Predict the 3D structure of the following.
Amino acid sequence: MTEFHHVPVLYEETLEALAPRAGAVYADCTLGGAGHAEGILSRSGPDGRLIGLDRDPAALHAARARLAPFGDRATIVYAAFQDLPNVLAEAGISHVHGVLADVGVSSPQLDVAERGFSFGQDGPLDMRMDTSSGETAQELIARLDADTLANVIYELGEERRSRPIARSIKAAQEEGRLRTTGDLRAAVVRVMGPRSGKIDSATRTFQALRLAVNRELDQLTALVAALPDVLEDDGIAAIISFHSLEDRIVKWAFRDDPRLTPTTKRPVIAGEAELAANPRARTAKLRVARRVPREVAP
């Protein structure tokens, strides 16, 4: 099992928002390496509980080891975050006092070439968060025609040159030259050159394919829709996102649902000290909302 070590972003800001306390129950929908979860359990002692979900077997393995000192205060479940209502029901929990989701890809997933998330290291075209099931990025590309693939890259990657990029990718696939992340990047570079402004030209295409493979936006939409039902009155939802499509879903849900009241006028972002220590936090945005009491908004 590959070591899974992830530095939680916006750690203090998230725990301040959730304000863990004794006797309360919390759900971490994206458990990862359990950095946030460990903080929640530490600050909700001696009897606060946490239900942690993840669909990455490597993350679950790491989380179980990290949270072992908390014993049965921590319940760890193999599940996608959209399944939170079902997970809570199976655990006999009607409502929780706080919900955390840190959506997107984690550093260990990016840093392990075999996972296929990053063009920085050559690896198989996988991109699945749950490596035990589902369609890989390579299988997705093979299944889609060029027009449909272009739509995916445009809609999920916000890539304006999606059509020539999709044609280049499909040509490489049909010629047997699309087996690795390096091959995918090369197909994009043939259209875009190596850089697109300040970022690598393949960034948006990789983002789009990852989101499509894991159905991340659909899952996030389902999660935010479920929040009013799973939160206690005055319970807190804290969601960290990493790009505009995710942030938009959270922003609109917190703004438009009368059962939720945003407690952050603008998203909370990392400060200079955190950015210096963890540059990947630069795109992280934390939004927080409180559950309106049911006597006011059922």
